[in-house]
Amino acid sequence: MKNIQVKIAPNPKAEIIEGLHQSLAETAIGTIKAQSFHWNVTGMSFGSLHALFETIYRDHFDAQDAIAERIKAMEGHADGRYGEFLKRSSIVETDAHISAQQMIETLKSDEETLSATLRALAELAEQHGDIVTNDFAIGRAEAHDKFAWMLRAHLSA
Asked: CA-to-CA distance for 21 and 70, rounded, in angstroms?
């Protein structure tokens, strides 16, 4: 079997890896936030929100591994420290002592942020001919768009 090397110039490659690190950090913070909300949600919509928050955190947990593996495939180092995630992420921690509606609004905003981060990564990867990262980022953005839509639906009257 032929050894296939990714052919991306060093600077664009570093930029793409940086975009993947941003995505990993935001996904990690989003994961634990959705899981915390899953544990702590109360109210009339408990059942549906408990299930939705679980779907989100399980998706995000799996995505963390896929993002880290893409970083490694590009010869980067996947830093898994939460302190680093918190420094890098534009998604911030939230105390789960909030209403179910605030949880929904917070996660909706986070999903929109994640989608925007991944769309920017997809565009960067496309500019530099990295079709694998481009495809991966588009797929992840699509997942976050769907979660944002599902959360918005809970906010509709």
From this structure: 10
Is residue 125 predicted with pLDDT exceeding 60?
yes
Note the pLDDT tens digit of each residue in 7-28.
555 589 999 999 999 999 999 9
Instruction: Report the percent of the chain where pLDDT is more than 70.
Output: 93
The residues, ordered by sequence, that sit 6+ positions from 49 with a Cβ below 8 Å of its Cβ are 37, 41, 43, 100, 103, 104, 154
- ∠69-12-118 over CA atoms, to 5°? 55
The pLDDT value recorded for residue 10 is 58
Contacts of 34 (CB under 8 A, 6+ apart): 53, 54, 56, 57, 60, 107
Angle between helices 46-73 and 10-40 (to 10 degrees): 160
The confidence score (pLDDT) of residue 11 equals: 84
User: Residue 5 gets which letter from DSSP?
Assistant: P
Residue keyed to tokens 């420094």: 87
- Listed residue (34, 42, 37) closest to 96, CA to CA: 37
Q: Which of 98, 99, 115 is nearest to 149 (CA)?
A: 115
